[in-house]
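Purpose: get a first structural picture of the assembly so the mutagenesis plan has something to point at.
Setup: three entries, given in the order below. No constraints added.
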Amino acid sequence: MLNKEQQEAVEYLDGPLLILAGAGTGKTRVLTSRIIHLINSFEAEAHQILAVTFTNKAAFEMKHRIENQIGDGAKNIWSGTFHSIASRILKRHPEIVGINSDFTIIDGDDALRLIKQIINELEIDVKNYPAKNYLYQIQRFKDKGLKPEKLNSKDFHHHNLPKLAQIYQIYQSRLKNLNAVDFGDLLLYNLEVFEKSPDVLEYYQNKFQHILVDEYQDTNNCQYQWLLKLASKYKNICAVGDDDQSIYSWRGAEIKNILRFEKDFQNTKIIRLEQNYRCTSNILKCASHVIKNNNQRHDKTLWSEANEGEKIKLISFFDERSESQEIAQIIDDLQGKIKLSEIAILVRAGYQTRAFEEAFIANSLPYRIIGGLRFFERREIKDVIAYLRVIFNESDDLALQRIINLPKRGIGNATITKLLSQGANTNSSLFLTVKRGINNGSIKGKMKEALTKFINDIENFKEFSRQNKLDELVKNILNDTGYLQMWKNENTPDAASRVENLKEFISSLEDFASLADFLDHVSLVTNTENETLNKDMVNIMTIHSAKGLEFDTVFIVGLEEGIFPSSRSIEERDGLEEERRLFYVAITRAKKNLYLTHAQNRVVFGNFQASLASRFLSELPQDILDVKSSDNFYNSYDSFSMKKKSDNFSYQSKEKSKSGFLNKRIFHQKFGYGKVVEINGEKLEIIFEKTGQKTVMKNFVQLQ
DNA sequence: TTGATCGATTTTTTT
DNA sequence: AATCGATCAA
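Result (structure tokens, whole complex):
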């Protein structure tokens, strides 16, 4: 059943509609119901509907739900991520922007390789001006819809990156020569298509009678312009968003797109969804209380009919090891009572997952890391894909560079650089340059032998791929080039798992009819829909990848200054507000139980150091908190644990004070384990295992 | 050209 | 702690 506002949002058909949907208010249901309603009421046919999301997962889920209700007709709906839809459109009109329809979509790795090449040629000091800063800035330009020729000095001056505009321009022309586009280009070229060809634009304006956009607060300027153009004729655009959940400004997202929606589309109807169906009222209260600290937001009141539920648990640990270790213990105790798959550990940054992985392995708790190292991003998989790219398109220099000396063929950096500059001079691809060099004798000896074999291999694979299935092709590549052998020779557990991944990769290829099909798929779909999803495992992931998900029990961990909020966000303008929204998103993932944890010490860049509790913890509503501390240390939040701790001390002093501390292993609440090397009255000299020698009062250590 | 070694640098977040 | 890049000997 839909509530009154949801129903209205589904049925409203008189032009632009903005749905401000708070966390857990059922926006996905509204979106899918609306699409079904459009079709069932004959307002639009499936192929006249455009539904845009940010993640493949969201798009997939939406489509799946609609298919369940109206069957195969749903297949004609244009639904997908901004990038996949833009790619689909660009494939139909590539000539307008001067590329071919078999363009390659390159990922961040390739883009970075290209930028590095360019800044090397321009002799820019990479030490002071790293390539990735350039790449980042260029991506931001693209997010704003700014092409190199449209830049004016104020756009790039303040970035303190020499020759930024020039590099951007060269980067674009190189991509064009390679018949390649990056993620940002997909949208950017769409805009160019629409500008250069009003007919094409009009075709899509007419085609898409109804446009629906999910997560509208995460659109960047380029996507915004794209939507504006497509919707400007019929103005049947329905955007769903929540300014409190905007967490992608670092990728160019602009909250103001929500604010200006009303101005861009006259007579916009605004519907607010404020009834939360997900969380207990305690969790909701916690989230609302936190987000109120932000200034830049629309004030809104989420409410719910749910019970208070459990209190929010706030737990403090000695260090990140005991944090992960004891959380594993807590979960172990819960096992049997609740499903593990209904538990999530949410971290601020990817590297934090490691401690949990280790703790879960130690406690033999099943877990999965969502969004971590994605399948198609693994090195061995990218290598094979690079082979496929070269086979599909021998002019794909970026892919060729990746594999020309993999496995090792004796083609070193010097040779590659030489070949590249030769290629640049003659305006020909790397592949062609190599071939030419072999023929005209400029490549000689061992080098010639190796490169001839390589070129022949590629041509053979090309031939083979015309007659054979994709998985057979890959098997041949792995065997004939010695790539598989390379890993097998390594004989490490790591290499073994790479071999396994390659096997998995081969079996995943069965679904694809052609190489072109596969390459299209792989460039835009980042992860294989993993089959482990149904298994009962604890979920570990970053908060960003948890967006849109919900779990019975959620642990938000590492709530410390410098981690959450992240150290960078503390310095950035508006950084803290976004960080707080991130916290808000994290809190509202929880349906029933919420644990907030932090460690008092943590290893940062290999150094064990004190870690301050996050400022966000002081923004929590105290009355619904249940504050606990791990038994091992002093905790500033909880007088109860202090008392318990001092009990421990008195017990110790009775039993152990006479036995002497010298040369004994001790534990200190703040510094951890150490060995006593000297006693001066009440003071002890201790060499701590992690922090070195310190002077500490006798009363503050326990014998182990 | 390769592999070893040293030192610098790193940690947001992702389509 | 772990990775990346620069440097150098073989």
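Residues 126, 603, 605-607 of chain A lie near DNA strand C (CB under 10 Å from a C1').
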